[in-house]
Amino acid sequence: MQSNKRPSASLIFIFGGSGDLNYRKLIPALYNLYIDEWMPEQFAIVGIGRKPFSDESYRERLLDGIKQFSRRKDEQNGKWAEFSKSVTYLQMDAEKDESYDGITNIAKQKEQEWGTHPNIIFYLAVAPQLVPDIAPKLGKIELCGDKKCTRIVVEKPFGHDLKSAHDLNTLLMSMFSEDQIYRIDHYLGKETVQNILALRFANALFEPIWNRNYIDHVQITAAETVGVEGRGGYYESAGALRDMVQNHILQIMCMVAMEAPVSFDANEIRNKKVDVLNAIRRIAPEDVHAIAVRGQYADGWMKGEKVPGYRQEESVSPTSNTETFAAVKFYIDNWRWQDVPFYVRTGKRLREKNTVISMHFRPAPNYAFPPEAADSWRPNRLTITVSPEMDIRIRFQAKRPGQTMILDPVDMIFNYDKAYENHEPEAYETLLLDVMEGNATLFMRADQVEAAWKVITPILETWETRAPVDFPNYVPNSWGPEDAEALIARDGNTWATMTAGAK
Ligand code: BG6
């Protein structure tokens, strides 16, 4: 299809090669990059795991994943056969030092075969507690001394709290340089999230009004209809604040709130984002109850189907106090945003799957219009729907056609699917290509991750010491606990619910 400049030869080792992330996301992403001619001319993918697979049976399993989860679900006239020739399986016990010789041997063999030293990528798609085990063993092998070509990709969650994130950073940085470490937040690979920079900084229209003089408040919602989907074991020690707010939501907030970068250099963009995180007002423990709301879903009905409550999910304690919903009001104390509330919320088993950013402008003075004209008057609003719809809407007032002056809020809509024929790449496609190219712009730097932990630490600590008294406190197919409505209503605002066409 398209193909610009492909990355140079790359050898990708995936720890967790028999796991779910590889099956659902990584291999489908690499396969789509292959079809779109973005994969290097010379590449090899080695899945690493404990389970026994032959190369053949491994490929069969991966093809099954393609059929279920790839945006292109078939073999594409032999493309799968071509692509999968470069995929092999290495059964190994990642906890034993000597197992790592197998990796070195494969790398040497590929280097000889290709006649060039390739990029070597270690993707740690494993449970977070295994990362501190595997990374030092990798650090010992000679290949990792190559600061230019060897990279390590670490999945979220990056740490469990500020201290463990800091310890993990210290550990990784004792073996790899910061430029070799790619901390993934898949939201940053989403087209619509990347487009925030284009919208803000490639147009003269928005930036002059993108500040406290014109914006009343900002909302970010990341709502999901699913429950914990068999991930109860992980989720019990995470909760919505760690799982979504510490990373995805704060990263989106950085894109919305950052100052204009002077270049698209990875460090320049990341510096600007860290500035936002550092400017977020620190929350005193005694204020947590006023600015943060937590919730947990009860059993109930979702689109005609009976669903269990969180406490009845597999691997979840029947008395669990883990939150499956969180809403927080943040302030960013700087010249641009002083006193503009940023309301964020996220939760499972909510009414819709929807990730939406909305910028609510201050009301225009309406004194000149007759009262009946202004009945349905609404302040301007700019909405960026990140997923599953991908669009940008601007709401403004229009005169309703007719002989009287009546105003109606209407939407001007830019929709990706309507504007572009090609299907957008999935987040993991973009991010994996960036790793092969050595571009870290969309990945989190050590200080960024720690700054994000600092923001949520007071809430985490307060919630840990004060058990919730009302869990479960929301029903499936709702918008979360009532307290979340109160949180925003106290300021005279309401959550914008983005059902298509909603006002
Ligand atoms: C993951 C979380 O990072 O993001 C999941 O661990 C969540 O709990 C998922 O479901 C949501 O991602 P997306 O791309 O479907 O919005």
Polypeptide structure, described:
The chain contains 15 helices and 16 strands. It has 503 residues and is α/β, with parallel strands linked by helices. The protein folds into two domains: 10-155, Rossmann fold (3-Layer(aba) Sandwich); 188-501, 2-Layer Sandwich (Dihydrodipicolinate Reductase, domain 2). The chain has an eight-stranded mixed beta sheet, sandwiched between helices. Strands 3-2-1-4-5-6 form a six-stranded parallel beta sheet. A two-stranded antiparallel ribbon has the order 9-10. Strand 5 (150-154), helix 6 and strand 6 form a beta-alpha-beta unit. Helix 1 (20-35) packs across helix 13 (427-437), helix 9 (240-257) crosses helix 14 and helix 10 (266-279) runs parallel beside helix 14. The two termini are 40 Å apart. The mean pLDDT is 94. It binds 6-O-phosphono-beta-D-glucopyranose. 6-O-phosphono-beta-D-glucopyranose binds next to loops.
Task: Report the mean per-residue pLDDT as an integer.
Answer: 94
Q: Which strand-content bin applies to the residues?
A: 15-25%
Query: CATH homologous superfamily of the largest domain, by name?
Result: Dihydrodipicolinate Reductase, domain 2
| Largest beta sheet: strand ordering | 8-11-12-7-13-14-15-16
CATH architecture type of the largest domain: 2-Layer Sandwich
Helix content: 25-40%
Quick summary:
By secondary structure, this protein is of the alpha/beta class.
Topology record:
Layout lengths: L9 E6 L4 H16 L7 E7 L5 H15 L9 H6 L2 E5 L9 H14 L4 E6 L6 H10 L9 E5 L7 H12 L7 E3 L7 H11 L13 E9 L8 H5 L3 H18 L8 H14 L8 H4 E4 L4 E3 L2 E3 L17 E6 L11 E6 L6 E8 L19 E7 L3 E9 L7 E9 H4 L7 H11 L8 H20 L16 H8 L14
Parallel strand pairs: 1-2, 1-4, 2-3, 4-5, 5-6, 7-12
Antiparallel strand pairs: 7-13, 8-11, 9-10, 11-12, 13-14, 14-15, 15-16
Helix pairs in contact: 1-2, 1-13, 6-14, 9-10, 9-14, 10-14
The protein binds 6-O-phosphono-beta-D-glucopyranose (BG6).
